[in-house]
Amino acid sequence: MQQLLLLLAFILLPGDEAEKIIGGREARPHSYPYMAYLLIQNPEGLTACGGFLVREDFVMTAAHCWGRSISVTVGAHNIQRRERTQQRINVRRAIRHPDYNTQNFTNDIMLLQLSRRIRRNKAVSPVALPRGAGERLRPGTLCTVAGWGRVSLSRGTNVLQEVQLRVQGDQTCRNRFRTFTTQTQICVGNPRKRKTAFKGDSGGPLVCNNVAQGIVSYGASNGTPPAVFTKIKSFLPWIRRTMRHLQCLTLAGAQA
Ligand SMILES: *[C@@H]1O[C@H](CO)[C@@H](O)[C@H](O)[C@H]1NC(C)=O
């Protein structure tokens, strides 16, 4: 049984190197306009996660990326630079799935309501979510994951990386992770290849045929595939309900 590792990263000091996607390459700048970079402030320190725009005022990420204060940057390629395409926005409310379990990482999904709408342009726009629970994601499907996480056990990056990964049969993850749950998780990444999501990629999307199907959740601590992704399709009713509720709260607040 593998030791599990949540794929979030502590921000390291300048000069120190962090980790990211393994076996990938630098993305063409702004070819993933839905990608968001999250900085999370907690008493223990500052951590980073990925996330993705699902609407002009909502970012989706993993529940384990929750923190006291979260800032969102969209339109970025190099997160250490001040690029003109970047929009930095605070989070108004961060709602973790109520059944998120910190022991076995089930229901690892969170919605961030932004304090204002992003300005949509070529570098910034939301990604589609699955339409219904009926759509099946077959093993073998080729998908992409993007992130600013580590490129090896010890090496980091400032520029967005991308990697293509194949959806695996559930058995591949059941054999590796005791906590794998077929109904709400997707098993991703061929165990015979040296390509996977890693520390710092948490919360980023698995995009298959232009639809966000998964959220980077956890993997093996030695950075070998497969990794486990939250299955977005199984949370559609919660996603719709939560967005509607938060929007109502905001409207009520504006009128008060
Ligand atoms: C995760 O933990 C919860 C609460 O203890 C439990 O109900 C659920 O069955 C667990 N799931 C897995 C896959 O271990």
UniProtKB/TrEMBL annotation:
It holds the Pfam family Trypsin. Residues 21-244 form the Peptidase S1 domain. GO terms for molecular function: caspase binding; heparin binding; receptor ligand activity; serine-type endopeptidase activity. Keywords: Disulfide bond, Hydrolase, Protease, Serine protease, Signal, Zymogen. CDD domains: Tryp_SPc (cd00190). One of its GO terms (biological process) is biofilm matrix disassembly. InterPro entries: Peptidase_S1_PA, Peptidase_S1_PA_chymotrypsin, Peptidase_S1A, Trypsin_dom, TRYPSIN_HIS, TRYPSIN_SER. SUPFAM superfamilies: Trypsin-like serine proteases. GO terms for cellular component: cytoplasmic stress granule; cytosol; extracellular space; lysosome; nucleus; plasma membrane; secretory granule. It comes from the Eukaryota. Residues 1-18 form the signal peptide. The keyword Transcription does not apply. This is Cathepsin G.
